[in-house]
Amino acid sequence: MDNYFEYFKKALLEVASTMTGISMTQDLQGFNIEEKMDVTITSTMCLNGDKNIIFTIEVPIKYAVILVSYMIGVDDSEVSEEEIIDGIMEITNMVAGIVKQKMKTNGVDIEISIPTAMVSREAKFVTRKPTEKYVVYLGDELLKICLGVYYF
Amino acid sequence: MRILTVDDSRIVRKIIKTAIQTLEMEQVEAENAVEALEELEKFDGCVDLILLDWNMPGMDGLELLKIIKGEQRYYNIPIMMVTTESSSENIRAAIKAGASHYMIKPFSIEELIKRILECLGRWQA
């Protein structure tokens, strides 16, 4: 399996910490596939070229509200649903931008799609190829972001 | 001072708006190239700075940059690209097309404020 997962993890930590100012927990914990997540925003992008990868960022909506409120510097009660979704898509977009450049530096040329998001309850992203998944916990409030990387 | 933000992400426009409000400046915004040109027309080019995303639906930021710099009445407006596109080729292409500054996402509000002031020639270290 191609091991680009570290690129995504580091990029996600960089984006989330820069855009929110929330310190990251460096101890990334394994994803529990059985865990029930609440209503969740799942944002996804495709990377195509020398390598073909789909990656997803899943954030339960209760954490997404907090993340986006930190991003724009307002109280979480002032964040609209459109802003929450757009904020998670923008995090995804920035992660892809960092990974694209990192891969290019290592001789792997790719292009990236635009981000797309869905809002759902207990959705599962299923592929027939190898998958890597992790949950990143952020700050004292234990905000949870799930990162999935799928090779095809 | 008036700053035009062109970005298809409403959250990015809102983050930039926060920075611009902190500086007590006016923000006008557009979510694509067509809207950006309409705003420039509306203000008759009286814009002090343009913050321009690269990847947008329809016309991309580089194309819009070339159009703006091709119009004599807009030629002197400084433009900072604010984008996830971080390769040296892209940076060179934007500078060649007339961008005066280049900022790579992600960024903090503090960094954004500093870069806006630099673009306006008002940054003091």
Give the arrangement of secondary structure elements.
The complex is a heterodimer of chains A (152) and B (125).
Chain A: H1 5-20, E1 29-30, E2 39-49, E3 53-60, H2 61-72, H3 81-105, E4 110-112, E5 116-121, E6 131-138, E7 143-151
Antiparallel strand pairs in A: 1-6, 2-3, 2-4, 2-5, 3-7, 6-7
Helix pairs in contact in A: 1-3, 2-3
Chain B: E1 2-6, H1 10-22, E2 26-30, H2 33-42, E3 49-52, H3 61-70, E4 79-83, H4 88-97, E5 101-104, H5 109-119
Parallel strand pairs in B: 1-2, 1-3, 3-4, 4-5
Helix pairs in contact in B: 1-5
Helix content of chain A: 25-40%
Rg of chain B is 13 Å
N/C terminus separation of chain B: 21 Å
Helix content range of chain B: 40-55%
Q: How many strands appear in the DSSP assignment of chain B?
A: 5
Number of helices of chain B: 5
Q: Summarize the main sheet of chain B.
A: 5 strands, parallel
Structural class of chain B: alpha/beta
Given the C-alpha coordinates, what overall shape of chain A results? globular
Percentage of β-strand residues of chain A: 25-35%
Radius of gyration of chain A: 15 Å
Low-pLDDT sequence parts of chain A: 30-34
Total beta-strand segments of chain A = 7
Give the biggest sheet of chain A. Answer: 7 strands, antiparallel
Q: Distance between the terminal alpha carbons of chain A, to the nearest Å?
A: 10 Å
Would you kindly provide a brief summary of this structure?
The complex is a heterodimer of chains A (152) and B (125). Chain A is of the alpha+beta class.
Your description of this structure?
The complex is a heterodimer of chains A (152) and B (125). Chain A is of the alpha+beta class and 152 residues long. The longest helix of chain A has 25 residues, at 81-105. Helices cover 35% and strands 31% of the residues of chain A. Chain A is globular. In chain A, a hairpin with a 3-residue loop joins strand 2 (39-49) and strand 3 (53-60). Chain A has helices at 5-20, 61-72, 81-105; strands at 29-30, 39-49, 53-60, 110-112, 116-121, 131-138, 143-151. Chain B is α/β, with parallel strands linked by helices and 125 residues long. In chain B, strands 2-1-3-4-5 form a five-stranded parallel β-sheet, with helices on both faces. In chain B, strand 3 (49-52), helix 3 (61-70) and strand 4 form a beta-alpha-beta unit. Chain B is globular and about 30 Å long. The chains are: A alpha+beta (152), B alpha/beta (125). The A-B interface holds A 14-15, 18-19, 21, 68, 71-73, 82-83, 86-87, 89-90, 93-94, 96-98, 100-101, 104, 114 and B 9-12, 14-15, 18, 55, 57, 83-87, 104-109.
